[in-house]
Amino acid sequence: MIIAIDGPSGAGKSTLGKMLAKQLNLLYLDTGAMYRAVGLAVSRANVDLQDDAKIIEIAEKAEIQLLGEPDNLKVLLDGNEVSKEIRTNEISQMASIVSGISEVRKNLVKRQRDLGESAPNGAVLDGRDIGTVVFPNADIKFFLTAKPEARAERRYEEDLEKGRAESFEKTLKEINKRDERDVSREDSPLKIADDAVVIDTSEMNATEVFEKMLEEIKNLQEA
Ligand code: DC
Fold first, then answer.
1. Three-state SS at 41
2. Global pTM?
3. Are 59 and 106 in contact (CB under 8 A)?
4. Where is 16: in which H helix or E strand?
5. Coil/strand/helix, residue 142
6. Which strands make up the sheet holding 27-30, listed edge to edge?
7. How many angstroms separate the CA atoms of 100 and 184, rounded?
8. What does the pLDDT average to over 164-168?
9. What is the pLDDT, as a whole number, of residue 60?
10. CB–CB of 93/139 below 8 Å?
């Protein structure tokens, strides 16, 4: 079974993706972490951000591994753990920038398909283009969304917990900037697949969203 979860940042995709993967014994694939790993590799290489050819080369050479259980995921770049480094504001923006380059997308989409297809029971993938591009034939597609303020609030709380918070205003600004770039890029922009189940999570907690998603999956299996 392939479950696609798309939506803007801070809508709850990774929390819900992990919960579903655990419940249904599926592989959880955080595709944003792959773009982040490429963003980190580009940042470390100190390349000119206009130099697409160099960025593509870095993406192609980057060895990216997502290891461990959904609750304790480790992201490795060229054999070294980078789970924390990829979550900074700077790398969020870098990920969003490199994700605008078609060849980078092509490379990562192929890796995502291979990983999803080879998972013994199937996978839950979270990202921006899972239901539209990576797995257009996914068994079920969810599009999670929420008001920018609600999403920024969640991201800010998460950053506070992890000791990397700056200010709520800055978080909101960063989220708006990234949303704008993710929806307006030419290749695979963030958009709602025609057959996606759309859930606005602004006023819902994770358990409520989880139950709604499970119900949709159950309906599908009974159909
Ligand atoms: O989900 P995230 O915030 O970790 O993703 C980081 C960036 O990567 C996001 O701003 C856009 C990009 N991305 C993408 O273009 N396609 C995906 N499937 C996942 C992420």
1. helix
2. 0.94
3. no
4. helix 13-24
5. strand
6. 27-30, 123-127, 2-6, 140-145, 197-200
7. 9
8. 88
9. 98
10. no
Nearest CA to ligand 1 atom 10: 96
**Å from CA of 124 to ligand 1 middle:** 15
Q: Work out the pLDDT band at 54, boundaries 50, 70, 90.
A: very high
State the number of CA atoms in the 13 A half-sphere of 148 facing the CB. 13
Question: How far, in Å, from the CA of 208 to the mean position of ligand 1?
Answer: 24
Give me the amino acid identity at 27.
L
Looking at the chain, the whole-number percentage of residues with pLDDT higher than 90 is: 87
The CB density around residue 208, as the number of other CB atoms within 10 Å, is: 12
Q: Among 2, 5, 29, 35, name the best residue to mutate to test ligand 1's pocket (greatest count of ligand atoms within 8 A of Cβ).
A: 35
Mean pLDDT (whole number) for 119-124 = 96
Kindly list the structural domains of the chain, giving each domain's residue range(s) and its CATH number in brackets, ordered by start: 2-215 (3.40.50.300)
> What gap in Å lies between CA 138 and CA 76, rounded to an integer?
27
Pocket probe mutation, ligand 1, options 99, 103, 186, 188, max atoms within 8 Å of Cβ: 99
